[in-house]
Design brief:
Number of helices: 3
Number of strands: 20
Number of domains: 1
CATH superfamily: Porin
CATH architecture: Beta Barrel
Strand content: over 45%
Shape: globular
Radius of gyration: 25 Å
Structural class: mainly beta
Order of helices and strands: HEEEEEEEHHEEEEEEEEEEEEE
Distance between the termini: 61 Å
Largest sheet: 16 strands, antiparallel, barrel
């Protein structure tokens, strides 16, 4: 009888311990999370670069550059969290990694950091602040195929595959060897600062830095960003883009306003290029709108840029499209883009595509 009395408490203790472990395990799972996510986007249509002939193609990244990634966070308590993200672009038309040949495997982001009540610090490869703002304040977001803003800013400085231009942003859309600080939300105001170290080369050509601020109040949002770069992909490589190229600064002011059925966008970008015996700058303005229509949105955008003291080019790019929502994760779209450089026959891109998120 005595053995029965002592055995019962032991069983209760085991049961209590098991329940305690289950609760602790559930709490730990709730405090930590890892998620797989990404976008697959592919389109088919016609593309004609300025000054060249047209070609038909099936391409990747019509409205969004396809990417996959996994990231997560761990709650450390007291308002502190560890965060990380590892993401890579890929080309669904061929299965190749990166958005272009030469892109690293984790080309979009590869960072780890600490989030605190006073802000977040992250270390590693990270999307540039200028690129993120340029995407946020135009209707076609990050489209390298159809966004007038992104095409004009990031379609290459030096010699592009089809046309020669000295308009464009150096440093790419993501910076390696970067340290970033992001402020907490201060009544609608947020800020970021980032510094990227060169991975070799002379000290004078081994730095990039940027600062950005966003203010939101009601339906209105405004952003400002400044960027300075001494190198493009590797330290000391600017001379390969343009002879005697030493550094570049870029500044952008942007704003958007959202109505019930429409949203308006505007951007102004100034780029200053320090080239031996040939310094020059580029001014670019962009305006656009998204308008609700049926089960989708009409997208419209126009960008104009002009350089001074370089190749003396003007460029006009305009896009019009319709993005139809099939579900919460999937949409189909049709877009036409007109692109014209001074002294060249006009370029055109037209296509239809499908995009899904996971």
């Amino acid at each position: 009888m005595e053995r029965a009395r002592t055995a019962l408490p032991k069983k209760k203790c085991r049961l209590a311990a098991a329940i305690f472990c289950m609760v602790i395990g559930a709490e730990t799972h709730a405090q930590s999370s890892v998620q797989l996510y990404g976008i697959v986007d592919s389109w088919v249509g016609m593309q004609k670069y300025p000054g060249k002939s047209a070609s038909w193609q099936e391409g990747g990244g019509g409205l969004s550059t396809s990417f996959w990634g996994f990231g997560g966070k761990e709650d450390l308590g007291g308002g502190y969290k560890t965060v990380f993200a590892i993401e890579g672009f890929f080309r669904p038309q061929s299965g190749a990694y990166g958005s272009f040949n030469g892109d690293p495997f984790f080309s979009r982001n590869a960072y780890v950091g600490l989030a605190t009540p006073a802000g977040t610090i992250t270390l590693g490869r990270q999307s540039s602040l200028l690129y993120l703002q340029a995407c946020q304040f135009n209707p076609f977001y990050a489209s390298f195929t159809f966004s007038p803003t992104i095409v004009q800013m990031y379609a290459g400085l030096g010699t592009y595959p089809a046309y020669r231009t000295d308009q464009g942003i150096v440093g790419g859309t993501a910076w390696s060897n970067a340290v970033q600080y992001a402020t907490p939300d201060l009544h609608g105001l947020t800020g970021h600062a980032m510094y990227a170290f060169g991975s070799g080369g002379p000290d004078n050509g081994s730095r990039q830095y940027s600062a950005q601020a966003t203010y939101r109040i009601g339906s209105f949002t405004a952003g400002a960003v400044y960027q300075y770069a001494n190198f493009n992909s590797t330290a000391g490589d600017l001379n390969s883009l343009s002879r005697g190229f030493r550094n570049q600064m870029a500044a952008q002011l942007a704003a958007s306003y959202e109505f019930t059925a429409a949203k308006l966008y505007a951007e102004y970008t100034y780029t200053g290029n320090d080239v031996i015996n040939r310094n020059f700058h580029v001014n670019m303005v962009e305006g656009g709108a998204t308008i609700a229509a049926g089960n989708g949105r009409i997208l419209a955008s126009y960008a104009y840029s002009r350089d001074t003291g370089g190749l003396d080019q003007t460029r006009q790019t305009a896009s019009l499209g319709y993005d139809y929502t099939l579900s919460k994760r999937t949409d189909i779209y049709a877009v036409y883009m007109y692109d014209h450089f001074t002294g060249l026959s006009s370029g055109e891109t037209a296509g239809v595509g499908i995009r899904t998120r996971f």
